[in-house]
Structures are given as C-alpha cells and as structure tokens.
Amino acid sequence: MRIYLFISLVTLLVFGVGCASLPSGEGPDDVALSNTGNDSDLEAFPVAEAGYQRHVFRLPELEDESSHMVTLVIGKRVLTDTVNNYRILGSLEPVTVEGWGYTYYQLESQGQMMGTLMAVHPSAPKLERFIEVNTQMQPIRYNSKLPVVVIVPDGFDVKYRVWTAGDLQAAPQG
Which of 2, 54, 93, 112 holds its CA 20 to 30 A away from the CA of 36? Predict the structure, then answer.
C-alpha cells in the first residue's frame, strides 16, 4: 500500500510540475493579445473547446476607468473584391462564469458572409481584407482588474477598441 501511495505521489508531482512549467495563455487553445499581470484569475474562465480559440487580453490601469469603454471587433481575413462591403454572420454573447460572477464573451459563427451585390469586373483584382462579424453587442465596461476573455471559432481574430468619454458640456436653455 505504501509503495502504491509513493508511486502515485511521485507521478502526481512530476505531472504537476510538467503542467505548471507551461505559462498560462501559451497552450494551443489560448491566444494572448496583451498578457501582463497575474494569471491566477484565468482559472475561473473555461478553456476553449475543440475548434475554438480563447483570446485573453488585459487593459492597462487608468486613473478614471469609468470614462472609458471597450468594444470588441471580431472577424477574419478574407480574399474579396474591392467594390462590395461584407460582414460575417454571427452572434457574440456575454456569458457569466458560474460561482464567480465574471463575464467572458462567446462567438458563435459558421463563417457565412453577407455583402452588397455590386457588379465587379471579372478581371478586377482581389484584396485580402479584415471582415468583421456583424454583432450587435454593446460596449463593455473598462476594467483593468480582470482579463477580457473571448472564445471564438478557429480562424477568427479578436481586436478591440478603447473609447474615451469627452468632457461634460452644459446644454443651453431654450
């Protein structure tokens, strides 16, 4: 019994040290956009399933974070004509992590595109462009204390834009 316990303990230790030597965010299903800070809070978020990637980025700390918002821009690079405008069909949903209250974002898309139907000359050159997913998601609150986690199908890129509120203006009467 002691030998079995000893072998189990050694195996667990060796396996644990081997797994711990991989930095968080460096696995095949994780893509770190800007990964600074403590990664212990990533344990609360789910890992990406097969066919998906988990993108993680952290926002820098700001003096007044309440005057900033973040919008997620998700899409993929596609070879298209230079005349028509395109969008990729999909839905981006906020999901709350049970027991933690943290939010991550999950994109569901088959990669189908829609676009305008303007005639293009057959010999017109093709251009590789970043085509956005047509989501109706509202901007998210700026929070430098937690990572922003986005799970997308393979082949999609995640970008983000930080918005800053301007100074308050007084509205004239009348």
Answer: 93
